[in-house]
């Protein structure tokens, strides 16, 4: 009997929004529509930056990378959530659960660091406008673009391995709509202390460090703007940063709200939806409506398509 109780789990149950009953169907429709718009909007940004010569600059290169990250991030989580909302089978295999956790968390970490890289790019453009393109050459762009991916993998792979080595022999019900460290630690039969310490330390490195870095770059930008005497000059400089500032603010504010509020509150899952689908959904619209160059490029591309047809 003791050996039976210690049998390792081979699968988990993602409870998601099971408590909503029949309301899961309209929630499925809402999230599906958001997912389609999110994928369509971000893919449109990627294609637009690719085909429009006026957007072939470091800033828009990083914007297209952010859009690609958003597409991959939501695709790690939302399809399984949609399946759980309409299917009776809410199982996810042990490997599938840890794979989802690894990829979603590493992509989330990469996005945090990419936002910091984009803040550095804007700081460099404001501080050294005459030498910006000489400094931000192709080699530096590729290096900065690679950094978030490398850090994302490093920050997540170690706590993922440690968590996967824990014993899971009791309940297999994950009270969330995706696999993450905290819900899995709560299910472990063995002591998760080491895994918790490492995952929390890596979470600090993954989120807090790039957040502080981003704030630091924007403090420097504000100092530079404060030295500009004309209001027109201040507005022009600030306008080059406003889209990124809006995206970074939206991302960090939603993430902070989710992680600051106590775990297990009734609306925690809905709050988690804000940064898993709402933020990636909003990003392409922020860059479209708040960026004059993107609006002009979109108008030119759509005009060419209409005239050619």
Automatic annotation (TrEMBL):
It comes from Hymenochirus boettgeri. This is G-protein coupled receptors family 1 profile domain-containing protein. The chain crosses the membrane at residues 27-49, 61-82, 140-162, 202-225, 237-260, 272-290. Pfam families: 7tm_4. Residues 41-287 form the G-protein coupled receptors family 1 profile domain. One of its GO terms (cellular component) is plasma membrane. Signal peptide: none annotated. It is found in: Cell membrane. GO terms for molecular function: G protein-coupled receptor activity; olfactory receptor activity. Keywords: Cell membrane, Disulfide bond, G-protein coupled receptor, Glycoprotein, Membrane, Olfaction, Receptor, Sensory transduction, Transducer, Transmembrane, Transmembrane helix. It is a multi-pass membrane protein. InterPro entries: GPCR_Rhodpsn, GPCR_Rhodpsn_7TM, Olfact_rcpt, Olfactory_GPCR1.
